[in-house]
């Protein structure tokens, strides 16, 4: 269900917001959600507790399974 894994310790990360911290090693990351087709950053659409991803470039909804997540470590 959750495709995001901490690169430092392999714990599952919460991918629903733009920034997350690892529950296990406390590392902080910025999350970019990228379109699998055009590699542009996706818009997060929040609805009923779920998050949908929309590509403004392709003008289409991207299924969460297809989203390419990119993690950038954030300095503490
Ligand atoms: Zn970790
Ligand atoms: Zn796209």
TrEMBL record:
* GO molecular function (one): ligase activity
- Database matches in SUPFAM superfamilies: YfgJ-like
| Assigned keywords, A-Z | Ligase
Report which superkingdom the organism of origin falls in. Bacteria
The answer to whether UniProt assigns keyword Translocase to this entry is: no
Q: State whether keyword ATP-binding applies.
A: no
Protein known as: Ubiquitin--protein ligase
Q: Which organism is it from?
A: Aeromonas lusitana
